[in-house]
């Protein structure tokens, strides 16, 4: 069985080495918990290497290599028990005095166990090896297992008294750590030629690492989502004052020119605020109908201001989709202010929606003054171009869509928004 044991130990060593390299190079996770798990991996790799040394030096029990491998093996084994205990205890926020006492008792029995097994290297009180390098248990073999079993039982006590604090994932990991090596110890008690215990601990490390990796990925996704929401709130706060300022500026302009029209504009603006205040503050997508309502109210105010110099066309071929709030309205505002608003005699703003099958296309087209292709909108120039960078970023982060702007000097500008249907419905 030497050959099969060697293959088993080499395979387990390779698995632990890969996990250890990945864990040591990772920059995520709680530093203290990560250090404890890295120590578990180092101890397990040391134990596996010492097991290999055991196999090839057991023929001559007096060789220094046999004694050295035995000392490393037993220190690493009981060190793993204690380090994994600390690893899971670290997840318990409210550590009682009883928990601290239990942890110290586990440490005590780990020390006792390692000392007893190291002594057995010199007097064979627990096991011997035959000429085929098979383990022969001695009468005191199961007595040597007592310190380890006591530590395992106390770990079970920690699990069941702190299961809520540990959480379901940690409880599963902890139970796996206790059950698999325990089964490995039992198997080795009846099939002494096979080292099931080393494989069991390796599988436990692999499971702990896998679950920990999944938790880290979920945490990173949650953090990225929170950061994206914060960016969205900041961007919305940048856009909203622009809309409010421009609307009030329009009403101010009308108040001196035509008071009656100004009153109608105030009424229009009041209706807008009453019906759509939720959309101004939400960080979720809204039905396109609501965004279109924003646009109609805004354009009604601008038509009052520009009179016959502003013409508006709606070519709405589909409305059954959702958009981030205040996404299309800023594009319309730019078309009015920086397109037809700067063209002598004014012009036309056209709003078009189309169903392209897998996506929705929204176009805001104006026949205003346009601009040069090598001088695109500056996302940092909020005085000239209202929140275009914010619009593009919100479309990307909230829907996975895109915003493309094309313009020809003297002919006009076209802003095209593409929204994947998977996000927009």
Structure write-up:
The chain folds into two domains: 2-194; 222-424, Histidine kinase-like ATPase, C-terminal domain (Heat Shock Protein 90, 2-Layer Sandwich), CATH 3.30.565.10. The chain is 66% helix and 12% strand. The longest helix is centred in the middle third of the chain and has 62 residues, at 196-257. The two termini are 62 Å apart. The protein contains 13 helices and nine strands. By secondary structure, the protein is α+β, with helices and mostly antiparallel strands. Mean pLDDT is 80; it is low at 376-386. It has helices spanning 2-25, 31-57, 64-89, 97-123, 141-144, 146-161, 163-190, 196-257, 259-281, 288-306, 329-338, 388-399, 421-424, and strands at 127-129, 135-137, 286-287, 310-316, 322-323, 347-355, 359-366, 402-408, 412-420. The strands form three sheets. A five-stranded mixed β-sheet has the order 4-6-7-9-8. The chain has a two-stranded antiparallel ribbon with strand order 1-2.
Concise synopsis of the structure shown:
This protein has 425 residues and is of the alpha+beta class. 66% of the residues lie in helices and 12% in strands.
